[in-house]
Amino acid sequence: MTQKPVMHSAHWGAFHAQQQGDQLTIEPFHRDPDPSPLLQNFRHALSHPARVARPMVRRGWLENGPGPDQRRGNDEYVAVSWEEAYTLVANELKRVGENYGPEGIFGGSYGWSSAGRFHHAQSQVHRFLNTTLGGYVRSVNSYSSGSASVLLPHIVGDMNEIARRGVSWEEIAQHSDVVLAFGGLALKNSQVASGGLSEHTERGFMQQAAQRGTRFISVSPLKSDLPDEAQGEWLALHPGTDAAFILGVLSVLIAEGLTDEAFLARYTVGWPQMVAYIRGEEDGTVRDTHWAAAICGVDAAFIAQFARQLQGKRVLVTVAHALQRAEHGEQPVWLGLVLAAALGQPGLPGGGYTYALGALGHYGKHHNLVSFPALPQGKNGIDRLIPVARIADMLLNPGTQFDYNGRRLTYPHIRLAYWAGGNPFHHHQDLARLRQAFCQLDTLIVHEIAWTASARHADIVLPATMTLEREDIGGAPTDRHLFAMQPVAQPYAEAKDDYAIFSELARRLGREEAFTEGRDTRGWLQHHYQQLQEKLAAHRVTVPTFEQFWQQGVVELPQLKDGGRMINAFRADPDAAPLPTPSGKIEIYSATIASFDYENCPGHPVWREPQQQPNDEHPFWLIANQPATRLHSQLDFGDYSLSGKRDGREVCSLNPQDALRLAINDGDIIELYNQRGHVLASARVTDTIMPGVVQLPTGAWYDPVDPTAERPLCRHGNPNVLTLDIGTSSLTQGCSGQITVVQVRKYAGELTPVQAFIPPYC
């Protein structure tokens, strides 16, 4: 293996890397104007003690065989050879397949495993299960946008059109007067993107817009959700009350004749129903500024003045992922669209509505002329699915019916779950409940680079290579650079890549040709690159040969400037370019959703009181948002992630008023708790968070003092011990993990060291 610097790519940026002893030297891609510091998480990751070195089998499973087992998460592991591991896995797949069919197998692997398009673990495991076993029970949607991705097609169009092909940052810098960002525009989120991100431009575009005079308004409990470069305003509402605030703003626009009635009449359906709801004609409750103020915690006069300042301006309304990751998360997404329509903005340069701007580095960018091919996943022989955030419900309640997007579905009885490239003990809620759910399985198989909590609950753990230890191609539909991801180091210990593992398992199950199609990894990379060449040739565009590309490490691809294409065409001629909704228009009222008869998500947007509300027992809102020092839980042991901790623990922010009342000083160890469990964290006292709210980011590896406890204590700081595992509504069944309620106190118990990165006893 050559030791010269080689080109590589990650979800947070492209870079040159060189191995020097036990660390990597990282040099960001020279064309990136604002490289992400997350790249430093790679420096000492290759040989970290947390890595999985050999195939491991949980002792209880090895000695007693498959079956439900309460020892998961609290058992020893036994090292086995790859030959033994392959035999165990192949035999178990054969047993479950023959006895229960694909309906007994869940293909998990939801996650951001690699920027490489071939070694994308989710695609690998799904292709394996389809081509080798005839299919699997699948999950749909994502934890990040589970509500919006189901709702938006009903009311305006596919989420990719609204988010990935929405209003561009370039257009904002040139035309927007007001950017009204519900949930903010935090740069920590936009510095990452699936498939890679070679140019971080959000900070620069916000600075350009601000210098031109754009008014950025961040509606969030956290001041940090808008960078200083935006020179913006911070509007702090009570968490989860954005829908009520928008209804209050709409009431002013209606009462004072500030709505664009011509736009509403031509381009929308359902505005009269919305007006009737706000005026109280539907149910007797008038939803005016006084009503909204009582819910949101801001003054009624402020809401009125705020509404008046929007009229006559080029306004862009954007709603972050965070808002729909909460109870009734559909409502602020829907109401953001209604507000933009009431102002007549959709389809105007720099105006209108876009979903999740700033949530990913993809959004607000231009699209490539053609996309890089994906690994085909084969045909799933069954149509059994769950919304991704309902996995614990499925495992705990087989045979139970549930609602989803107008369908009445039934949870299957899963015997075996196969996970590669994901960590559900990061992104799922109520981790004690999740542990109980995994204890119901016959077998859990995991491919992992390190001893995450998910690996510690598995029956068979197969050591996987890191992206740095294999070759691949990195690229994204909105990134004009395609990267040859060249190996930086040899595989750690006995680690193998997912493709090698699945190829051998497919061979033992008699389906090797169906899975590999006769290609090794390099063969697939050349095949996909050739497909890209053919796509570009149809547009009379040529790119270097594969050999040239691999040698130079990067190639630039042509792009289109078609942000907002669907809405722009619709505004220009709604008859010739109708929206892909039942009416062909923006649906302020959806007859389709109304026909589902869901009380928690009726036919037009509403305010619904969440079941979680601060009270005397749990007086604080907890915001469990995305971390700034890592992507989700990836490389939590990395240098940059560790630099954001204090004495190895996550940091929890709280307002000085609350800290004074609780006698908490900056740096104290505090305990957050509710009926689901307890979490320790280091206190950060700051005025960048509103009173009554605490913020603890997700991604700290779950480290319970007693893994079997009904109310576990995580000494590392994983907030999903505390979050509630319920669907956002019957329509979308999205994740509700962004907000919960807790009590906070200075910790007075025994303080034991964090052990999240120490492998389990073997």
Largest sheet: 6 strands, mixed
State the helicity in percent bands.
25-40%
Biggest sheet strand line-up: 5-4-20-19-18-6
Average pLDDT level: 96
Whole-number radius of gyration? Answer: 26 Å
**What is the rounded distance between the termini?**
32 Å
Total DSSP E strands? 32
Segments where pLDDT lies below 50 for 5+ residues?
A: none
Q: Could you say which structural class the secondary elements and strand pairing correspond to?
A: alpha/beta
Helix segment count?
27
The percentage of residues in β strands lies in 15-25%
Q: How would you sum up the global shape?
A: globular
Organism: Pantoea phytobeneficialis
Cofactor: Mo-bis(molybdopterin guanine dinucleotide)
Protein name: Asp-tRNA(Asn)/Glu-tRNA(Gln) amidotransferase GatCAB subunit C
Pfam families: Molybdopterin, Molybdopterin_N, Molydop_binding
Which labels suit this protein?
762 residues; alpha/beta; 6-stranded mixed beta sheet; globular
Quick summary:
With 762 residues, this protein is an alpha/beta fold. The protein is built from 27 helices and 32 strands.
Question: Secondary structure elements and their pairing?
Answer:
Elements: E1 6-10, E2 13-20, E3 23-28, E4 56-58, H1 59-64, E5 77-79, H2 82-100, E6 105-107, H3 121-133, E7 138-140, H4 146-155, H5 159-162, H6 169-175, E8 178-182, H7 187-190, H8 202-212, E9 215-219, E10 233-235, H9 242-255, H10 261-267, E11 268-269, H11 271-279, H12 289-296, H13 300-310, E12 315-319, H14 321-324, H15 330-342, E13 352-355, E14 367-368, E15 385-387, H16 391-396, E16 401-404, E17 407-410, E18 416-420, H17 424-427, H18 431-438, E19 443-448, H19 453-456, E20 460-463, E21 472-474, E22 481-485, H20 498-508, H21 512-516, H22 521-537, H23 546-552, E23 554-556, E24 559-560, H24 565-572, E25 586-587, H25 591-596, E26 620-623, H26 639-643, E27 651-654, H27 656-661, E28 669-674, E29 677-685, E30 693-695, E31 713-714, E32 739-746
Parallel strand pairs: 6-18, 7-15, 8-9, 8-12, 9-10, 11-25, 12-13, 18-19, 19-20, 26-30, 27-29, 29-31
Antiparallel strand pairs: 1-2, 2-3, 4-5, 4-20, 14-24, 16-17, 21-22, 22-23, 26-32, 27-30, 28-29, 28-32
Helix pairs in contact: 2-20, 3-20, 6-8, 9-12, 9-13, 9-15, 12-13
Domain Molybdopterin dinucleotide-binding: 620-736
GO molecular function, one term: electron transfer activity
Domain Molybdopterin oxidoreductase: 51-507
